[in-house]
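Researcher: Go.
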Amino acid sequence: MEKKILERIIEIPEGIKVTKEGNVFKVIGPNGTVEKKLAYPGINMALNDKKIIVSTKKSSKKEKRLIGTFESHIKNIIQGVTVGYIYRLKVCSGHFPMKVTIEGKQVIISNFLGEKIPRKANILDDTKVQLTGDIITVESSDIEKAGQTAANLERATRITKRDRRVFQDGIYMLR
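Model: Structure:
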């Protein structure tokens, strides 16, 4: 029984430039540039006119999953360089007035639950963070960097050894 070749074709929209050097895809668009290394043995990725073709000769469950994963990564990158990704977080302080400031590549959280030492959260490269009132906006053309920066902010205000039903202070993502 002959196995058929499994392939997915991703259309590249107008105004987007895609280059491939080895296993690294570089996508340039109006909202920025994103580079991503996508490689796995047995999965071929080709760049034709206005299409990216992800294919494999072996169509086992693992290869099918990875082809879908690679397709999703490429679509996320294309959406990022055209529209971008925005995460909004809210600063919630009920017990002590928390002070949040942005200094270079770090967000400094002072007086969190009355602590004397300020907590710090890292801002990844190519990510813009703005603070307006009690709303923090994280913006980037790379979904992974924007998401990780937002997660760093949430994780910096994680509460331990206290009842979370009572102490609801922190920085939380808005829906």
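Model: The longest strand covers residues 85-92.
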